[in-house]
Design goal:
Helices cover about 25% and strands about 10% of the residues. Strands 1-2-3 form a 3-stranded antiparallel beta sheet. The N and C termini lie far apart (about 70 Å). The chain has 3 helices and 3 strands; from the N terminus they run E-E-E-H-H-H. The chain is elongated, with a radius of gyration of 23 Å. By secondary structure, the protein is of the alpha+beta class.
């Protein structure tokens, strides 16, 4: 219900920011009423409220639709928490994938340098 008052603002550019509603993601909890993955500062939380280890979100799936300008501070909060978790040893040790050498026939066809 408006006040009935109107105001005209001179502007050279008007941008409309349309938010999007998140959808359920496989193997992650989801709050359908808000359209977000439940989280605490970007750390994904289960339906019981406990933080799921090494699972993070940022952006609209973290907080719901909103202004584009808030994505940077939203992502910073998540990354700060991820770094904190890494620094205190809460993240699993990454394992390098096993990389097989290229077949000999490929190496003969490619000249490096």
């Amino acid at each position: 219900m408006g006040t009935g008052q109107k105001e005209t603002i001179e502007a050279g550019l008007v941008i409309r920011s349309v938010g999007y509603r998140g959808r359920t993601q496989t193997d992650l909890p989801f709050d359908d009423s808000l359209g977000v993955i439940p989280n605490s500062g970007g750390r994904v939380t289960g339906h019981d409220g406990d933080i799921l280890p090494a699972v993070y979100v940022a952006g609209w799936i973290k907080r719901g639709s909103g202004f584009i300008g808030t994505n940077k501070s939203c992502a910073k909060e998540t990354v700060d928490n991820l770094i904190e978790d890494f620094n205190v040893g809460k993240l699993p040790t990454p394992h390098a994938p096993v990389v097989e050498p290229a077949p000999r026939s490929w190496r003969q066809r490619v000249r490096l340098g």
